[in-house]
Amino acid sequence: MPAPNAPEIIGRPLVIAIDGPSGSGKSSVSREVARRLGLEYLDTGAMYRAATWSALNAGLDLTDTSAVAEHVRLLDLRMGTDPSAPGVWVDGRDINAEIRETRISASVSVVATNLPARAELQQRQRDLIEAAAKGERGGCVAEGRDITTVIAPDADVRILLTASEEARLARRARELHGSDDATAVAATRDQIVRRDADDSAVSSFQVAADGVLHLDSSGLNLEQTVQAVLDAVMRNANANVGNGGRHNRVTDLDSADLASNGAVNR
Ligand code: DC
């Protein structure tokens, strides 16, 4: 029999919301947390990327707000939420790799700030999170810019994951260019700094809202950040681990209390 996942251990669905700016590491962290807790993983940024890819593929001018909104309303989008193999399909076509290309990163903010298109995707995100909570895995980790505040303000655990601009630029430069030298950082700046400034027009993801835990990952590696999130889940999800030690996966995950080193602020 497979080991019980986190919702089975605590006896109810578990929804974890993680927001943050570009390069904060939230995708890798959210995915890994979902994998370890046996939850689904929802990358809401990928939904805006897919909508952008599809609108461009249809030859639309992204600044034509109503045409793009109508296109998004009719979008045949499927999100694969298995954290070990997340995927994105439009009209049955796998576009998971294409939506990460620079041309999409450079234009996705136009769609993310198109309010009717945004409302459509936000509704789909709420539906997907609800379906995950009722589904086989009993919950999900959903990540984006407005999940803790607008999409899932009632999530069991809400975290704003940030990192200094310097750390975010260096991380993304290494991802995109294999180096964080001055040229690579300069080439990455548009994708981090300009995009976050544009996206800030429609969502607030630089300062933690009331009740949202702030985790600064500037000085942490991926594993330390994952552990800090798991620790927050332990503290916030009222995990029922008093079951004679049979189901102790969640306690086992609580190996680092990073609150003590100042990375986590309640
Ligand atoms: O996280 P990402 O880079 O894949 O996000 C792609 C774009 O979508 C980015 O410009 C911000 C936007 N976005 C948003 O506005 N709201 C979300 N919940 C997720 C992403």
Report on the structure:
The C terminus is likely disordered. The protein contains eleven helices and nine strands. The protein is 48% helix and 14% strand. The protein has 266 residues and is α/β, with parallel strands linked by helices. The relative contact order is 0.19. It has a six-stranded mixed sheet, sandwiched between helices. The chain has a three-stranded antiparallel sheet with strand order 3-4-5, covered by helices on one side. It is globular, with a radius of gyration of 18 Å. It has one domain: Rossmann fold. The chain binds 2'-deoxycytidine-5'-monophosphate. 2'-deoxycytidine-5'-monophosphate binds next to α3, α5 and α9.
Name the CATH superfamily classification: P-loop containing nucleotide triphosphate hydrolases
**Small molecules bound:** 2'-deoxycytidine-5'-monophosphate
CATH topology: Rossmann fold
Which structural class do you get from the secondary structure elements?
A: alpha/beta
Oligomer: single chain
Total count of domains: 1
The Rg value, from CA coordinates, equals: 18 Å
Unreliable spans: 239-266
Number of helices: 11
Under the CATH scheme, the architecture is 3-Layer(aba) Sandwich
How many DSSP-defined strands? 9
* Beta-strand content estimate: 5-15%
Element order: H for helix, E for strand: HEHEHHEEEHHEHEHHEHHE
Helical content band: 40-55%
Level-1 CATH class name: Alpha Beta
Largest sheet: 6 strands, mixed
Distance between the termini: 37 Å
Strand order of the largest sheet: 2-6-1-7-8-9
What global shape is seen? globular
Let me know the average pLDDT: 87
